[in-house]
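Chapter review. Work through the record for Cysteine desulfurase before attempting the end-of-chapter questions.
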Amino acid sequence: MSELDITWVRAQFPAFSEPTLQGLAFFENAGGSYTCKPVIDRLTRYYHQRKVQPYGPYDASRLAGDEMDEARTRLAAMMGVDTDELSFGPSTTQNTYVLAQAFRRYLPEGSAIVVTNQDHEANSGPWRRLAEDGVEVREWQIDPDTGHLDPTALDTLLDDGKVKLVCFPHCSNVVGEVNDVTAICAKARAAGAFTCVDGVSYAPHGFVNVDALGADIYLFSAYKTYGPHQGIMVIRRALGTALPNQGHFFNGDVLYKRFTPAGPDHAQIAASAGMADYFDAMAAHHGITGEASARAAGVHDLMRAHEGRLLQPLLDYLTSKNSVRLLGPSRAEGRAPTIAIATQRPAAGLAERLAPLGIMAGGGDFYAVRALTALGIDPALGVLRVSFTHYTSESDVAKLMDALDRVL
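Structure tokens for Cysteine desulfurase:
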């Protein structure tokens, strides 16, 4: 099929048949997506049949461990990396914090790192705190009018050879523009720096091939990609084995355990295989074939095409309104369907007024205080954010625009 079968897609999500959600259009997907049925089924099965310590000699334990391994194996294959280069943690914020502690010990004296003011605070704050240990923190700043992160501005930050790590988002959770990760990673690598890419706001719109991107670290959240509340972390082997172990000393030789010091949530990791089930089923339904990474790429393109078709009319509608400021590009190409708008009124109040009209959206700063401040927006007022993904329908978007007409 050349277009996404939206009827089939929505049938894979129990939320769309849930009586309490009927008549409501969900536009806070950037905060967390609906969960697909295969994930729910696996989680239910695990709690019913396998909620024991995994990797033991008896059947329930063996099956529990097998399903955890299955999740890691299949998701890693979809993302073009080795199985042990992918690990789970309680959240992306926590995963980033653990990584920052590893770099705290790893970076030689006189080192510098680069962070942006386009980021969600999770991929900025932990890295900025390295300044307390003498690491020089350089800020790659966005354009104050557009929110654009100019790759040429990175050149001057890298020119003296001191930078050992560049941290940036694949896509901002308020600006929406998709950064050229491949080009940025190549630029950093040429300057002798590793890269840490926050993929939280992009991954809901399709899993990426991390090997093709060239990122050393790629982070995202399963609960925003139709799965359970886990952080997923890809660390390429060269960097992962060079950084000091942050886990138990006896796990130091196991790459996927080196940066997960807390005991894993067995059931949620096992249920994460349901994300692979869903993507594989979507590929099969739409006639997408090939190896795991090729199927994932095909599903990615299918999802992004559908989102773009719905996104452009909404962007056109918002740019026609003199009373609002649209953050980020006004064209669907090159941006995610995460749309933030600023007005002279508190955004939380606008979200509250949308709720009785059947629109589930959010208002606030969304942990992007630095980005909003750089754009001249008072974080106390915040922005109204309407975000969607591939299971959103044309009728949802029409309902949103009608509600915005009444609220704005």
